[in-house]
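sorry for the late reply, my laptop died twice this morning and i had to redo everyting from scratch. anyway the thing you sent over, i finally got around to it. pasting the sequence first so we're on the same page, its 344 residues, then the predicted structure underneath. double check i copied it right bc i was rushing
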Amino acid sequence: MTKNATTTMKVAQVPYAGGDIQIVEREIPQPNAGHVRIKVQACGVCHSDVFVKDGLWPGGIQYPRVPGHEVVGIIDELGTGVSGWTKGQRVGVGWHGGHDSSCTPCRRGDFGNCQSRKIPGISYDGGYQEYMIAPVEALAVMPESLKAAEAAPLLCAGLTTFNALRYSGAFPGDLVAMLGIGGLGHLAIQFASKFGYRTVAIGLGPDDAELAKKLGATLYIDSGATNAAEELQKLGGAKVIVATAPSSKAMSQVFNGLGTNGKLIVVGVDIKPIEITPLQLIDQIRTIKGWSTGVPIEAEDTLRFSELSGVRPMIETFSLDKAAEAYAHMKSGKAKYRVVLTME
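ok and here's the structure:
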C-alpha cells in the first residue's frame, strides 16, 4: 500500500449462521508467509455459498465469514517466501483453496481430495470483499483477454462441467446429454459442443429450446412433454449424461436413457436419494459417478479452453454494496444464469 492509501476495505460478510449478509469496513489484511493479497475485481455468487450463509457446512464454520470462491483479481502484495508470482499479475481462485501436501491423497498427487483441503469462503474469507488473502497453491493464472466478471464463474461452474466432460470417457461424435440448462448446464452445453460431442440438452418446458440450440445443442428434449430417457434411447442411448439440475428425481427418471456402458455424472446437488435399482446398473453395465470441481492447474485448462473456443457464461452483475440482493437473486432461481459481484 502507498503511504497515503486507505487502510480499510469494504467487505460483505455473514455475521453468523443464518444471518443476513452485511456490508462492513475492515482493515486491509497483510499476507502471511506463502500467501498473497489479491485486489479483487470480481467474484461469482455460487449456489454453494448457501453453506456459508445458512451454516450448513459439515464440521462448522467460524463466523463472521466472507463468502466467495469464484474470485478474479490482481496480486498486490506478496507474503514472505512467495516465488513464481508477481505483483500486478492477474489470478483466479476457485473452490480449491489450498492443500497440506502431506496427506495420502496429496502424496499421490490427488490434491483435490486432500484430507485437510481449504475452501475459500468456508475455511477462510473469500471474495465478497475488496481485498482477499489466499495461499499460493490456490492460485490460477488468468488469461488477460478474459473479462473479470465473465471469468469468475468459469473458476467453479465452468471448471466443474469442463472436468466432468473431459474425464467422462466420451469421444467426439458420442451422444452426450446435459440434464438442466441453468448455471451449470448452460456452460456444460457449450463445452460439450466444442468438444465435438453429439450434444443433447434436456430441460423442463419449451422455453429453453431456442437457447439450448444457440449454446450448441443439436437437439432439445422437453422432459415435461415427453419421456427423456425414451427419447435418448431412440437416438441410440447416451454415452454420458451430465446431471447439472439439482433434482434427484430428474436424475432417476433419465437414467434409463444411457446406452451400453453409459455413465451418469452427477454435478448438481440434491439432498434426496437417487432411486436406481441394481438391475438398472447391471443391465448394459451402466454407472453413476459424482464429480466435484478441480485444482488450479485444471482451472487454467478451463480458462484457456474458454478463451480459445469462445465459451462464456451468461451473467448478471451486482456491485459489492448489493451483495445481499445478489445472493437473494441467485437463490430465487430467476438469474440468467450466473450472478457476479464486481468491485469496480
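The chain has a mean pLDDT of 96.
thats about all i looked at so far, will dig more tmrw
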